[in-house]
Records
---
Amino acid sequence: MKIEILRIGQRLVRDDRVTTHVALVSRAFGASRILMYDANPEIKDTISKVNKIWGSNFEVEIIENWKDVIRKKKKESFKIIHLTMYGENINDIQDALRDEEKILIVVGAEKVPKEVYDMSDYNVAIGNQPHSEISALAILLDRVLVGNQFKISHPNAKREIVPSKKGKKVMDKTID
Ligand code: SAM
């Protein structure tokens, strides 16, 4: 499944840390790209450094206009999934989401414009209580990929963790 993330909202500058974490979750949980406003160039640098060390070709794309992005993705046959506490319960909709081939997941930074609800194919709630875009995104991706996102190894990694009961084991992949 091809997965991309669209982060929208006015509060992105104040929410730099949250935006960085949304990008990190997207990368680590199986998405291939995040599209967002030019919140803070450091976010792009942070992700690029993580890619270099831990692998993956995860991309950060800076956008001007979220409506144009949604329209373009629809033309490319992406289904639009908007994460909102007002949406349909994830427990009821997860089977349908798993059958999709390309999805664009929209997460907000604050109150989201009404048009997003109308333009989306699915408005999905991770429970109907307010919480966080980071947790909502992580749970959605886990429900859709059912844990398989943790089985893939990331290409071009310099370091890879060897899971262990105690301590930290890290393999240096630059040494033969
Ligand atoms: N009142 C806002 C709203 O209209 O959804 C909450 C904003 S919340 C701080 C930021 C983002 O987190 C939301 O735009 C949504 O994408 C996500 N989010 C928060 N709680 C959620 C939930 N229960 N289910 C799905 N997404 C949620």
---
Amino acid sequence: MHIHQLEKQWAAIALMIAGLFVVVILSSALFHGIHAPSNVEAIDSAKLHLSAEFAEDKLGVQEHPDGSITVRMVAGRYGFYPKDLVLPSETNITFRWVSLDVIHGVHIPMTNMSTMIVPGYVAQVKTLLHHTGDYPLLCNEYCGMGHAHMWSNIKVVGKAQWEALNKQGGVNHG
Ligand code: CUA
């Protein structure tokens, strides 16, 4: 069977592009901490208010004895709750997300905090916020008429400033 020279060249280019994508995926996973969400943890989205972890008074920031932080948040049409959060920079943070209605997405630009929030499951993302400042928290999964207005803010401050705020109860605790 004869294969035209041009055909071979295009096949080689297509293979190289596919190879390049594999390299990009591997390097983002191995060196940039970007992973497809793999946390499979079921939860009853209709009973979040009764759950041990996502009842209203449990939401927000929880600091652990080793200094790491867990942030529990609920996404629902059309907002992320609690509304205002202050987080420390350069600290191991585990975000745990649940939805109370439909599929939402959440993304903090310029960080690896990006995941879908599927009702019935807990979405978990570990991150380290390197820069202080105000970050938008955006819904990036179409969820209804108010989707474009579904966003809030996270304020990232230095660790020392955060500790001081934390003592005054100003970081939105559960
Ligand atoms: Cu929530 Cu779009």
